[in-house]
Amino acid sequence: MEKSIGIVGAGVAGLHLGLYLLEHGIKATIITDKTPEQVRDGRLPNSVSHHHVTLARESRLGVCHWPVEEWGYQIHRHYFGLPDPLAFPGRFSAPSRAVDYRIYLPRLMDDFEARGGTIYYRQIDRDEIPALGEHFDLVVVGAGRGAFSEMFPVRPEYSPFDRPQRILCVGLYTGVRPDEPESVTFSVSPGHGELIHIPMYSFSGRVDVLLLENIPGGDIEEMAHLRYDDDRRLFLDTLLAKLERHHPTIYDRIDTARFDLQDPKDLLQGGLVPGIRHSAAEIGDGAMAIAVGDAHATVDPILGQGANIASHSAWVLGEEIVKADAFDRAFVERVDHRRMDRVLGAQRWTNMMLAPPSPERGALIAAMSQNPALADEFTENFNYPERQWARLSSPESIQAWIAEKS
Amino acid sequence: MEKSIGIVGAGVAGLHLGLYLLEHGIKATIITDKTPEQVRDGRLPNSVSHHHVTLARESRLGVCHWPVEEWGYQIHRHYFGLPDPLAFPGRFSAPSRAVDYRIYLPRLMDDFEARGGTIYYRQIDRDEIPALGEHFDLVVVGAGRGAFSEMFPVRPEYSPFDRPQRILCVGLYTGVRPDEPESVTFSVSPGHGELIHIPMYSFSGRVDVLLLENIPGGDIEEMAHLRYDDDRRLFLDTLLAKLERHHPTIYDRIDTARFDLQDPKDLLQGGLVPGIRHSAAEIGDGAMAIAVGDAHATVDPILGQGANIASHSAWVLGEEIVKADAFDRAFVERVDHRRMDRVLGAQRWTNMMLAPPSPERGALIAAMSQNPALADEFTENFNYPERQWARLSSPESIQAWIAEKS
Q1: CA max distance for chain B
Q2: Is residue B93 part of a domain?
Q3: In terms of Cα–Cα distance, which of B318, B307, B308 is closest to B381?
Q4: Which of A30, A235, A369, B139 has minimal Cβ neighbours within 10 Å of its Cβ?
Q5: If interface means Cβ-Cβ distance under 8 Å, which residues of chain A face chain B?
């Protein structure tokens, strides 16, 4: 069977899938509304780190252009701003790595075209999807959280929230002293939110992601509304004051005189509603569209799972496309059967971390601060969210995990 | 974690699970309402053949007491009573084997007790399940299609029927000449139903299962209502006349003078409603009950999938019990994640075979009659119903399968 796959969207899911298909001799066409230059010149789209399972996929695809030896990190530092602060590290078995997606995605678009993939640069509306169904054996929708949402309705059983649980303010900064060795920090200010610091490779080389995950109504939410472009100094001074008060281990690494955004475009503010959508839609004449990435599962970025599960889902989808005789409901079900444990694990674990901590989670944090094996497994499981969820799914499972490791 | 598992029911699922747990050092207790003697002396409970994936599990458990060299068969013969009859064989890669469950189950109950398992012989009502939840870490319900049905409601999305699609009449007979080599026959009388003939090991040695799957309102339905005990000769003569008219390849093998049930108890008549039920129920205080076997998925016996998927589900459940830290909702979801492709594949494929044939199914039958590779894959897939369903799930997938093999 000669197969020709149409992919709407050139995010990590669309590109990993497209490259996978080309590697397997399957015709792949990407339709996206932004050229590589427009992506490169655009505003910060997100803050993403790839864990080693994702980097392994990049290596298999021959697109691991940013070696972890130079750009990777292998440690998560945890800081809990309790009356008696808790701080402890967790170690990965292999490095993770963050590259600015305005560098990453255009480079993979170039790879895709250089290997014979076709990219059409145009906006696609919902109404045009059936026409794509006539041109392609399968239409993959890996674009946007909005435009195609009516095609793939939210599954309420997996989507507990109707509003954002954190109001985000994420930027790429200079003037933060690197940790030695490089690490990511999760800093928690109870009642106010989290700060995730990530060392990232961007246009000026190494920069510092500060991802503020602010609890609505808390003391830091303001940072999601202050406009840098209106008053740069007010924005930076307010941010510095919040960091000093709530996230001291990061504040201590800041050279306040040099501290600034890498560029005024390097700031993203707002909120998203986490949720999982139906996987597939019939688009007329028996043709199917299948959702992948954010179009399928939107995850709060607090744990950085979105891009990693999008890449995983794309890979599974690619494998099933290679094997498939027909792109029918059963095909979609096979894809879901293989991806949903990881997608659901990431979603549920993330949603758990957005909720106020239970006594068992408190006990786990205390145990991890004393027990490196436990903290290391917690960290390594950023690669395997389904394993993390098996550990965290109930008070009993958390207690059993602590008992097993002590 | 010391684990103690309570299993309600001593069918193939309960026993395979119980034996698996004992092998892995986990305490297993079976509660069932019939002693081995009562099972042995009872009416025919079903007609079951184990395919090689199930036999492999038996070997791993050390309970493969009926060697396939003596009792196995490796061929399915197909007969379609069309104006121009079609007949063709399909071959398994390894033998299947049918043993009367009134011999099979008591022997495995003996094995279970000999290896340290405990069996309590008593009727359990729905009301007593919560008390079991206090005694065991997990309660497995593998009994009955009725008693616990309210605990595990039907899932309508997987249960398309509200009444039996076939009215069954299954018996163990003597006086049928064995095929050389031994084989199973699927004989189809369009509009009236199917006859499945299976060579089985029973109390008198080799007997012949005749499983009549009668379409309601068709010419053979009568056989599901005639009472052998009321008028043995009328029953047999009517059956012989139906076989002669509808299932000639089996009729031709019958020595009418010797033809009879092995024993008056060896007859089962009636119908069942296929369906899949919710997997788990909370039984108070956070304790869980999980359904397996018929309590979870009731499949029409036309393809003989019920026992094989029950054994598969029991095995998956056993593996997950060994790994589990806690028996919570996430545990059940992991079990389902691993078993549902096979369970759903068996259910959907079976339900498809109960429906009037589509043009594509007709084309597949015609193609199989000409193409042994296709017929062999169809036959081998009795071991892997999820693969069969991937082949049969849509007109396009059937066409692609035929094209691939021609």
Answers
A1: 64
A2: no
A3: B308
A4: A369
A5: 1, 286, 325-331, 333-334, 337, 340-341, 344, 389-391, 393-394, 396-397, 399-401, 403-404
Contact B286 A396 (CB under 8 A): yes
pTM: 0.87
Domain count, chain A: 3
Would you list the DSSP string of A39-70? HHHS-------B-HHHHHHHHHHT---S-HHH
User: Residues B277, B135: one domain?
Assistant: yes
Whether B84 is in a domain gets the answer: no
With a cut of 0.95, is the ipTM above it?
Answer: no
Domain carrying residue B378: 358-405
Residue finishing a domain among A338, A353, A368: A353
Contacts of B404 in chain A (CB under 8 A): 1, 325
Res. B4 pLDDT band, cuts 50 70 90: very high
**Helical spans, DSSP H, in B252-323:** 306-323
CATH of the domain at A118: 3.50.50.60
Q: Calculate the dihedral angle through the C-alpha atoms of A288, A294, A296, A297, rounding to the nearest 10 degrees.
A: 170
Strand partners, A276: A297
Q: Based on the fold, state whether residues B208 and B251 are members of the same structural domain.
A: yes
Same domain (yes/no): A283, A370: no
Question: Do residues B31 and B138 share a domain?
Answer: yes
Sort out which chain B residues have CB atoms less than 8 A from A328's CB and list them.
Answer: 393-394, 396-397
Which segments of chain A have a pLDDT < 70?
1, 145-146
Average pLDDT of the residues of chain B: 96
Q: How many CB pairs under 8 A join A and B?
A: 74
Probe site for chain A from B325, B334, B341, B405 (most A CB atoms < 10 A) = B325
